[in-house]
Amino acid sequence: MSRPGHDSSPTGHGPHHAAVEALAERILKGTYGEGDSLVMPEVQAELDVSQTVLREAIKVLTTKGLLDSDERRGTFVCPREDWNLLDPDVLHWKLAAGVSSDFFADVLELRRSIEPAAAALAAERRTDEDLAVLDDALRAMAATDHNPELLVRADASFHRAMLVASNNRFYAQMHRVIVPVLVQRGRAVPTADDTSGQHPHAAHAAVVEAVRNRDVDGAYVAMLELLDLSAREHP
Length: 235
Fold this sequence. Notes:
By secondary structure, the chain is mostly helical. About 65% of the residues lie in helices and about 5% in strands. It is built from eleven helices and two strands; from the N terminus they run H-H-H-E-E-H-H-H-H-H-H-H-H. The chain has a two-stranded antiparallel ribbon with strand order 1-2. A hairpin with a 3-residue loop joins strand 1 (about 65-70) and strand 2 (about 75). The longest helix is centred in the middle third of the chain and has 25 residues, at about 100-125. The protein is elongated, with a radius of gyration of 20 Å.
């Protein structure tokens, strides 16, 4: 199975990228509310872009579920339930616009349904390369000495590596949703995945040890316990 590379935004760079970002920011922050129709000359003036650039930006945001159009209403903002939060760009914009505690709670529910199963698959399918990457993440975590920024980075590396180690292409892709939210949460709560004031290395190491020993049930339970401990520490 191929390993996921560095993520790149399909919106690119330059005026088109800037227009997409600016328009998305207005939608995510509520400047343009759900159901609002966009007055194109006004939006074009606000963004200071050409009609061509604005049309292309609207096409991008339409594919991501933020905008739609019909003959009666023109281009309008879609309901929030239509926004594709699994899209890395939309998720990035959502996190930048600010999220509530219930957003993190929803993501935790998603993680509890995915990451223990991914750890179980990793115990069954992991390669030596997978173990090496997981061990690197553990070493980085052990060396943080409770440094919040380094802990967040090491934690993100660990969870991404575990998803990849599942050797399931769909679970591996979930790092695009889980890791950005984990990083955002870690910055808001500096002791990310820290449990009861203890360094989080031990809880993470327990998952890796089960994976190393090909203990499928043990890996599932250890990952579930890790997520539950973190949730109790940072409700």
